[in-house]
Design goal:
Blueprint lengths: L7 H5 L21 E8 L3 E9 L2 E7 L10 E11 L7 E3 L7 E13 L12 E8 L3 E8 L10 E6 L10 H5 L10 H9 L7 H14 L32 E4 L9 E5 L4 E9 L1 E6 L10 H9 L2 E11 L9 H9 L12 E10 L2 E2 L5 H11 L7 E3 L3 E2 L2 H10 L4 E6 L8 E9 L2 E12 L7 E10 L2 E8 L5 H12 L18 E3 L5 E6 L1 E2 L5 E2 L2 E6 L38 H10 L1 H8 L4 E5 L9 E3 L11 E6 L5 E6 L3 H9 L2 E6 L12 E8 L5 H17 L5 E4 L5 E6 L6 H18 L4 E2 L11 E4 L9 E2 L14 E3 L1 H4 L13 H8 L18
Parallel strand pairs: 10-20, 15-17, 37-38
Antiparallel strand pairs: 1-2, 1-6, 2-3, 3-4, 4-9, 5-6, 6-7, 7-8, 8-9, 11-18, 11-19, 12-13, 12-14, 14-15, 15-16, 19-20, 21-22, 21-24, 21-25, 22-23, 25-28, 26-27, 29-30, 29-33, 31-32, 33-39, 34-36, 34-38, 35-36, 35-40
Helix pairs in contact: 4-14, 7-11, 10-12
EC number: 6.5.1.1
Cofactor: Mn(2+)
Protein name: DNA ligase (ATP)
Length: about 850
């Protein structure tokens, strides 16, 4: 009996004289395990998930798109099988044809059933599998639902399994807005294919056409959100960023306290500066040596990420048998030559800083903002590439945990600190056991026949001269002894390189001072020698001449704390005091500073409390003191005025001491005042509208921005509205910034005049939502994330994930009493990298 054609339904539904879709022919790919996801804006927007089975693509229409959140069970409607050739289709299906609308190749890769399962499980109504795509990764499951009476379609659920690739919320759908094949947006695909302005879908079309009318442009309005996307998936041969000396940490005697500090694990490995640009990678040691070849497997993993030009700071580590970073294990890996092998590398790279991105110098930004941008850049990275996690405050707990697990210690970074290529007190290191580097100047013969030497003599450079520091006689394995002995034989010399006491010179063979050893010890003796020393390993990433003593500084903070007077003064009708407000800002400093630091500010000051007289202040005559800074900015009349800005928690608290409740920021930074980097659409509803209408409007704006390739973020204003925030790379003018936001808001109001209005007129706003685009002009400000609001209930402006917005009952669910909840919430997967996206203002 002839086998039924699995593509019969596919072919019957299409007129291939009208559609560019490929005709249905059964085939087989090389590997036989491909998968694709196509974003499809037909009658309604959905994502078509397809996996290769028996020479065809088994297909499901996922109505809300794949979610990386294990809590989300996405409806997936089974559709007809598609030919393998369909996995490369991207374009416009003509109106009137089956599935008419825009199709984007949204993801692609390979799939595999988990061990013990197979594609035949689909017949049983379930499939447990893994994906290795450009966006979808890890374990997933498809489950067929029991059909309801009379139901014709076959309904399944697509769900992510909780693994290392799981995330919270709809971050894939919200932020993955371009084709993996061509880099185009949905608007570009529709426009390039049809030669029109059309955004797929009725509302999208109306929006696009009216936006073009509003801007009085005849050409297609949006070419790309960053021109480099139009050339295809892989990036061009942009120049690698240059090496720059890394920032070094100061050794201190205890962990700094307070929320001014973020704390990371101190990794026990090799410091590395990684320069990347597309498939080009260079890995440098902390002294600038090019060790790309030594770490070739890591370089290949980094190249596969296809990153824009960037300079990343981090640590390369290997792990011991307990899974802990271990310097000796790292040395053993390099000795065995695993750095150049083609198989999976036993090394990992833990990135902890981002110095340069796409030609932009980020060292002028705060530590916490650079870390946020790093997390956004490496959001799709997977082992062996990691982003080092951090905690804000609570450094003592992290330090105790590291010491209890046998780790080296922690690095503490001042949240508002900048990156400097030298040792700084903005980076501190606290060690569980003292460890320093020493130059090996000689060795003592061992009386044991099986041991080539008993101990090594150590020294460090002080004022350009080697100074003896004692010896180390433990911590040597048999292979280490053999390796060191072979090195010593080539370095023997007659005279001691340093002055050594007579009692320590007996039976010593002197060597040329070239080898650098890392040694753990309890303390220095009164004579300056190490006590209870243990050999860790040789360091080849640092020249001997650079080895100097590392002095331990006392952590006692020399900065005078900001004193808050009248802490008991009640300033909110709900009872919160000035002291409560100060405690809130001190607690959330690490959350607000990435958005507030180094930005010209307007302060809402209420010296007598919220019910008293409140006023805006943006200039400073000097009354705020040293923690609040000033930047001269040219006014419209050509004159110069000093504007306020802060860069640390002390600055925030100084403003609170002066009666400040709210912080509003410019859309640009003090170092580039004329180059805006943030666009804000403030949705201000008429009093007749409920909050549900505002939430729907915000999501609608998010979708329209997504159509033109812009990632956006939602923030509850702390009042009655929602802000839709679009982070942008600086480089365009205020005129272009204002023009785009104006035409965007105008297009929405023209496309849906019963819903939106883009003018401030209160008389015309009845029953509508005002899209306030006026915050996107030079000198205008918008309330900053995590700012308190001068409202009766002491509410707070709070970021939210798009996936959680629907559950919010109003725009003010948090108050200044919720600092701990907000800190915990901010580190959730759903809010990871909130407010950060590397994207340019569309060129039109």
């Amino acid at each position: 009996m002839a086998r039924a054609d699995p593509l019969r339904d596919y072919n019957a539904k299409r007129d291939f004289k009208r559609t560019a879709e490929p005709a249905g022919k059964r085939a087989s790919s090389t590997a036989g395990n491909s998968f694709v996801v196509q974003k499809h804006d037909a009658t309604r927007l959905h994502w078509d998930f397809r996996i290769e089975v028996d020479g065809v693509l088994k297909s499901w229409a996922v109505t809300k798109g794949p979610s990386p959140d294990p809590e989300d069970k996405r409806l997936a409607v089974r559709t007809e099988d598609h030919p393998l050739a369909y996995g490369e289709f991207e374009g416009l299906i003509p109106k009137g044809e089956y599935g008419g609308g825009t199709v984007m190749l949204w993801d692609r890769g390979t799939w595999a059933p988990i061990e013990g399962k197979s594609a035949k499980d689909l017949d049983k109504g379930h499939l447990h599998f893994t994906l290795e795509g450009e966006r979808m990764k890890g374990e997933w499951i498809l489950i067929r639902l029991k059909p309801r009476p009379g139901e014709k379609r076959e309904n399944w659920l697509l769900r992510k399994i909780d693994d290392q690739f799981a995330l919270q919320g709809d971050v894939l759908v919200d932020r993955a807005l371009t084709s993996v094949l061509t880099g185009r947006t949905m608007e570009e695909i529709a426009g390039d294919t049809a030669g029109s302005h059309s955004l797929a879908g009725k509302k999208g079309k109306a929006f696009s056409e009216t936006m073009a009318d509003a801007g009085r442009h005849n050409a297609r309005i949006v070419k790309t959100a960053g021109k480099t996307r139009s050339a295809g998936k892989k990036r061009g041969p942009a120049k690698l960023p240059d090496f720059r000396p890394p920032q070094l940490a100061t050794l201190v005697d205890q962990v700094p306290t307070g929320n001014d500090w973020m704390h990371e694990i101190k990794f026990d490995g090799y410091r590395a500066l990684v320069a990347v640009s597309g498939n080009k990678v260079a890995i440098y040691t902390r002294s600038g040596l090019d060790w790309t070849d030594k770490f070739a497997p890591l370089a290949r993993h980094l190249a596969a990420l296809d990153l824009p030009p960037a300079l990343i700071d981090g640590e390369i580590v290997a792990y011991d048998k307990n899974g802990n970073p271990d310097f000796s294990s790292l040395q053993n890996v390099l000795k065995r030559g695993h750095g150049s092998q083609t198989e999976a590398t036993p090394l990992s790279f833990h990135a902890f800083d981002l110095l340069e991105l796409d030609g932009q110098d980020l060292t002028v930004l705060t530590n916490i903002e650079r870390k946020e941008r790093l997390e956004a850049l490496l959001a799709q990275a997977q082992p062996p590439i990691h982003v080092a996690d951090h905690v804000i405050g609570a450094g003592e707990k992290l330090f105790a945990a590291m010491c209890n697990s046998g780790q080296e210690g922690i690095i503490s970074k001042r949240i508002a600190g900048r990156y400097v290529s030298k040792r700084s007190r903005n980076w501190l290191k606290v060690k569980c056991v003292l460890r320093q580097e020493f130059v090996v100047i000689g060795w003592k013969k061992s009386s044991a026949r099986a041991r080539a030497f008993s101990s090594l003599l150590l020294a460090q450079y002080e004022d350009g001269k080697l100074v003896y520091k004692g010896n180390v006689g433990t911590g040597f394995s048999a292979p280490t002894i053999d390796d060191l002995s072979a090195r010593f034989a080539k370095l023997e010399q007659a005279d001691p390189p340093a002055e050594v006491p007579r009692e320590d010179r007996r039976e010593v063979t002197w060597i040329t001072p070239e080898l650098v050893a890392e040694v753990a010890f309890a303390e220095f003796t009164a004579k300056g020698s190490v006590r209870h020393a243990s050999f860790i390993g040789l360091r080849s990433d640092k020249p001997a001449k650079s080895v100097t003593p590392e002095k331990i500084a006392h952590i006692a903070d020399t900065e005078k704390p900001v004193e808050i007077s009248s802490r008991q003064r009640v300033i909110f009708e709900s009872g919160q005091t000035k002291g409560d407000l100060a405690d809130y800002y001190e607690g959330v400093a690490g959350l607000i500073l990435p958005f507030a630091a180094s930005r010209p500010l307007s302060l809402v000051r209420c010296p007598q409390g919220r019910s008293g007289k409140c006023f805006f202040q943006k200039h400073d005559s000097g009354s705020f003191g040293d923690h609040v800074h000033r930047v001269p900015i040219t006014e419209k009349d050509g004159g110069m005025e000093d504007y306020i800005y802060v860069d640390d928690a002390a600055g925030l608290l100084t403003c609170v001491q002066m009666g400040t409740i709210e912080f509003h920021g410019w859309g640009s930074r003090v170092e580039a005042v004329e180059q805006p980097d943030r666009m804000v659409f403030d949705l201000d509803p008429d009093e007749e509208l409920d909050f549900d209408a505002v939430k729907l409007a915000a999501k609608h704006i998010h979708d329209r921005l997504a159509d033109i390739g812009l990632t956006s973020f939602a923030m509850l204003s702390g009042g009655k509205g929602i802000h839709v925030i679009v982070p942008l790379k600086p480089g365009h003018s205020w005129a272009a910034h204002k023009d785009f936001s104006h035409r965007f808001a105008q297009a929405l109001s023209l496309a849906e005049p019963d819903r939106f209005i883009a003018t401030m007129s209160k008389a015309k706003r009845k029953g509508k939502i005002f899209i306030d685009w006026l915050r996107n002009q030079r000198g205008a400000t918008a309330v900053l994330p995590y700012s308190a609001r001068a409202r009766a209930n002491a509410s707070v402006a709070v970021p939210v994930a798009w996936g959680e917005l629907a559950a919010m009952k109003d725009a003010h669910p948090f108050s200044i009493g919720d600092a701990k909840r907000l800190i915990t919430r901010a580190r959730s997967k759903g809010l990871a990298c909130w407010g950060f996206a590397e994207q340019a203002l569309p060129d039109f």
